[in-house]
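Assess this today:

___
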Amino acid sequence: MRVFVAGGTGVIGRQLIPLLVTEGHDVVVTTRSEGHVPALRAAGAEGVVMDALDAASVTMAVLGSAPDVVVHQLTSLAMHDSVANARVRPEGTRHLVDAAGKAGVRRMVAQSISWAYRPGTGPADEETPLDTEADGPRAVPVGGVRALESAVAEMQEHVVLRYGTLYGPGTWYAPDGLISAALARGAVPADDAVTSFLHVADAAMAAVSALTWPSGTFNIVDDEPAPAHEWVPVLADVLGAPVPPRTEGGGAPWERGADNARATSLGWRPIHPSWRSGFRTARA
């Protein structure tokens, strides 16, 4: 297929492009910088400069590429700018869906998140409603997810991948990442808040598999949701940071993790089924 990857120079995109090229797809990758185009060409893909927040730029990029499928990996996380990322989800997705419609594209695979579910007990599955009553700072990402998924659902064929918390090269959990720095300061509590993790390589593999999945929403997470008092000491040990003492309680009711049974029923299996070994592999 001719695959248009929007946001292909991010942490998932860098893993995704070689997988698509190896499978024989004709790959077009967007970037905000002309300077990234030669590297994309060297990787076997065609690079196109696009500003996701500019509707005309997105339309020109998609129409000019004439893809069979659009893979939406747009984020704005590299500079830890939550405000910019909050704009990308609703606005960038809206522009991408509209452009895909004009280009006659039937299918879109889109990146979402698995921690926007309503508070509850135990890992959330895809039938669990989103946390529409969220307020305060949490209302921003949840609102962005609702807008993203609603827009993507307008496509004739649509697959939404609700990724877990990403770790691996280039992420906040890498040795030079935001969480690693916080661990070094003792600023990551080892409490009861539950997280579902996902290695970036597994996120990329899921995106490739989703090119042929039926329309729907899928949690893409590893097999072991875990409270922070379990995973924080392991990550601290791997990174050589001080191991924080356990904090009793803590965590919000929505920090419950997610269940990956729907995705695994289609044959997707994470290479890194648990963060326990995955953290060490990523560090190596």
